[in-house]
Amino acid sequence: MSNTKLVVFDIAGTIVEDGGEVLTALAGAFKQSGVACSADELKEWKGASKREVISHFLRRQAGRQPPSKEAVERTYRAFRGELEGLYRKRLNPVPGAVETFEWCRKRGVLLATTTGFDREIRDLIVERMGWREFFVANVSGSDVKRGRPAPFMIFRAMEAAGIADASEVANVGDTPLDLQAGSNAGVRKVVGVLTGAHSRERLEREPHTHILPSVAELPSLLD
Question: Which domains does the chain have, with CATH numbers?
Answer without folding.
Answer: 6-18+92-222 (3.40.50.1000), 21-89 (1.10.150)
